[in-house]
Write a structure and sequence with these properties.
globular; mainly alpha; 57% helix; two-stranded antiparallel sheet
Amino acid sequence: MRWQPDSPVCAECGFDWQMTRAGDRWSASMYVWHLVDVLRIGTERLLTLAHDPARGITCWDENALAEGRRYQQLSPAVGLIVLRSAAEAWTAAAAVAPADVQVHHPQFGSLGALEIIRRNAHEVHHHLMDINRCATQG
């Protein structure tokens, strides 16, 4: 028996399990740029915990951002350089994010540093797998 998702769209990440094979497929370069944005936004969220938690954090649409920034036209070489600096900034923000502060997210409710760090770490881990998959599939 093959594994089947619980619903047609992942409640957590919005992945559409019913998309066609020719559907919106991201390239390795697009995933790199997405990770740049994930880490930059994650850094902003961690800094919000430290400096202005009452402000809360907002939702963002990864597909709209990809379209707006035109990921498909951005340089993969530059993306890798920028990804390193985004990871360094995120790591620094994660190291000093207060563990006892919560921030409100409109979709996920109250989030603390650990939840933000784990969500970002999962996103990076998952998309590194996607990048490797793209690289091996050509």
